[in-house]
Amino acid sequence: YGSYIRGENKKVWVNESDGVTALLGEVWPGETVFPDFTNPDCTSWWVEECKLFYNVVPYDGIWIDMNEVSSFIKGSKNGCAQNDLNYPPFTPSILDKLMFSKTLCMDAVQKWGKHYDVHSLYGYSMAISTQKVIEALFPGKRSFLISRSTFVGSGKHTGHWLGDNAATWDHLKWAIPGMLDFNLFGIPYIGADICGFFDNTTEELCRRWMQVGAFYPFSRNHN
């Protein structure tokens, strides 16, 4: 796989706690490494890979996803060490009561520091790197970039949608304060999946959602 081989040669992955061995997780394709977008070498690699893909399939914008960062396993294929980063003295009430559930080990190493300290910046750093792709491919033009994971300040680089919602009246209602919140966070280009992402919608629900969704800054039916 060319993208992996070129990335491996440039050592652009998030590493295990030793700072050398690429951390292995699992996402849709199966066994997966994770680009460390806090590493300038990774940004350069990402720009070139997106250019290569554009030469095969021309596109007008980029939608980046699963960048919380998400993994289908806990931490790493090799497991996570027993230490205060992976098992801190106080763990909030989160999934499985584990800091690394469905994500990376907290002692994984990135250019900006331990994953424990920069976990919430993964999507932010990916958006910065992807904006450089947009600038390289479409110089002087306005393009399209949305990210599922964002942080305060991400609005300078990307838009956002509220994630995987459901086809329910409650989720239609909750999307409105959700989008207003993101305006407070400095991310004005914001939307929700119109008609809901999960479950089957109904004609009335989808019609009403399309009506209110016409006023979303980012308006997309994704049912």
Kindly describe this structure:
It is a single chain. With 223 residues, the chain is of the alpha/beta class. The chain folds into two domains: 2-161, Alpha-Beta Barrel (TIM Barrel); 162-222. The protein is 33% helix and 12% strand. The chain has six helices and ten strands. It has a four-stranded parallel β-sheet, covered by helices on one side. A hairpin with a 2-residue loop joins β1 and β2. α1 packs antiparallel against α2 (40-56) and α2 packs across α4 (122-137). The chain is globular and about 55 Å long. The protein starts with a helix and ends with a strand. Pfam families: Glyco_hydro_31_2nd.
CATH superfamily of the largest domain: Glycosidases
Tally of separate domains:
2
Biggest sheet details = 4 strands, parallel
CATH class of the largest domain: Alpha Beta
- Give Rg in angstroms: 19 Å
Runs in which pLDDT lies below 50 for 5 or more consecutive residues are none
Coarse morphology: globular
Structural class: alpha/beta
Q: Going across the major beta sheet, what is the strand order?
A: 3-6-7-8
CATH architecture of the largest domain: Alpha-Beta Barrel
**What string, H for helix and E for strand, traces the elements in order?**
HEEHEEEHHEEHEEHE
Helix content: 25-40%
Beta-strand fraction estimate: 5-15%
Please tell me the overall pLDDT: 96
Domain Glycoside hydrolase family 31 TIM barrel: 3-223
Pfam families: Glyco_hydro_31_2nd
GO molecular function: alpha-1,4-glucosidase activity
Family: Belongs to the glycosyl hydrolase 31 family.
